[in-house]
Amino acid sequence: MLGLGVPEEFGGGGEPDYRYRFVFAEEIARTGFTSFGVGIGLQDDIVIPYFLDLATPEQKERWADAEVVAAAQDDPRTWPALRARLSDTFATRTRDERAEVFDGSDACVTPVLSFAEAAAHPHLTARGTLVEADGVVQAAPAPRFSRTRAAGIRPPRSMPDDVADVLADWAPTGATDLPTERQETR
C-alpha cells in the first residue's frame, strides 16, 4: 500500500487522488497501529512527492527497480537470482572505490579491512585503538578512563604453559580458589 500516488510505471498504485490514502490511513488507525500509519503517511505525503518532482528519470527507474527487489527478498524462490544480482553489482567496483564514494560523508559505512590495514587506518590510529607491544599489534585496553590508565601493555603469549599462571594474570589480587591443572575440553 506504500506509494499509492506513485505512477504505475515506477511500481506505485498510480492513484494521485488523496482520498484513497485517507481511507487507507483511517483503516490503519482502526487497527491501533498508528505508528505504522505515520510511516506510510511520511512516505506517501512527504518523501514521495519530492522524489517525483526532483528525481531524474534514471533515479526513478533505479528506485522502481529497488522496490521490486525489496518485494522479492522475502521469497526464497527469488534468492538465487537476487544473489547473482548482488554479486554482479559488487563486482562492478573494488572495495576501495566503494569506500571512496562514502569518504567524508556522515553515512555509517566502512570497508572491511585486514588487520594490517586496520592498524594503519587514520581513524583507529587517531584514537589509539590498536597498540604495538614488542612488535605485536593488538587491541588497546578498553574501556579507557581519563584518570585511571591501563597497566603496561605486553604482547600476548603464544601458548600458555601453565593455566594457573594465565588465570593468576586475570584474577583479582589475593584470589586463592584458582584451578591448578589444565582441564581438557571436548
Overall pLDDT confidence: 75
Distance between the termini: 54 Å
Quote the beta fraction.
under 5%
What is the rounded Rg? Answer: 28 Å
Task: Say how many strands there are.
Answer: 2
The helix-strand sequence is HHHHHHHEEH
Helix content: 40-55%
Number of helices: 8
Structural class: mainly alpha
Shape, per Cα inertia axes: elongated
Largest sheet report? 2 strands, antiparallel
Low-confidence stretches: none
Major beta sheet, strand line-up = 1-2
Note the topology:
Layout: H1 18-31, H2 34-54, H3 57-72, H4 79-90, H5 95-102, H6 115-120, H7 122-127, E1 130-133, E2 136-139, H8 163-170
Antiparallel strand pairs: 1-2
Q: What labels describe this entry?
A:
single chain; 186 residues; mainly alpha; two-stranded antiparallel sheet; 49% helix
Description:
- Helix 1 packs antiparallel against helix 2.
- With 186 residues, this protein is mainly α.
- Strands 1-2 form a two-stranded antiparallel ribbon.
- The two termini are 54 Å apart.
- Helix content is 49%, strand content 4%.
- The mean pLDDT is 75.
- Among the domains are: 47 residues, no CATH class; 43 residues, no CATH class.
